[in-house]
Design goal:
The chain has 129 residues and is mainly alpha-helical. Helix content is 71%, strand content 0%. It contains 4 helices and no strands. α2 runs antiparallel to α3 and α2 packs across α4. The longest helix is centred in the middle third of the chain and has 28 residues.
């Protein structure tokens, strides 16, 4: 009798271990969150791109016309990614994009000297945290 109980218990445990794995195999590995991650990465890449071309323009490496054309491309990409992320919510608008850019700028631009820096690291120009 004890053996039967152990086998049953093992069967139940096995079911709870395997069932989510089977569900994942059918749906793919959490399709929804990996899509969100991909969209978030695309959005971030586009916003970083905007900051990049802004600093290139400021450094005189990019004409205003080239900057405007590139910025439009990056914005289209960022808005497309934002729309995907906010699919169930009211669609993202330009204000939201500007807010995202401002937040990213705060993260990427040194508050002391204005140089572009890596998020979470010290400014290479002035050493501010
Ligand atoms: Zn600095």
């Amino acid at each position: 009798m004890a053996v039967v109980a152990v086998v049953l218990l093992a069967g139940v445990l096995l079911y709870y271990v395997i069932q989510p794995l089977l569900a994942q195999a059918v749906d793919g590995p959490d399709t929804r969150s990996s899509l969100r991650e991909e969209l978030a990465a695309r959005k971030r890449a586009a916003l970083v791109g905007i900051l990049d071309i802004e600093s290139e323009r400021d450094a005189g490496k990019l004409s205003d016309e080239d900057f405007a054309a590139l910025r439009r491309e990056y914005e289209t990409e960022a808005i497309a990614a934002l729309r995907g992320l906010e699919a169930e919510l009211p669609s993202a608008d330009d204000d939201e994009l500007e807010a995202e850019i401002a937040a990213l700028r705060a993260e990427l631009v040194c508050s002391e000297c204005g140089a572009t820096k890596r998020p979470g690291s010290r400014c290479t120009r002035c050493g501010a945290a």
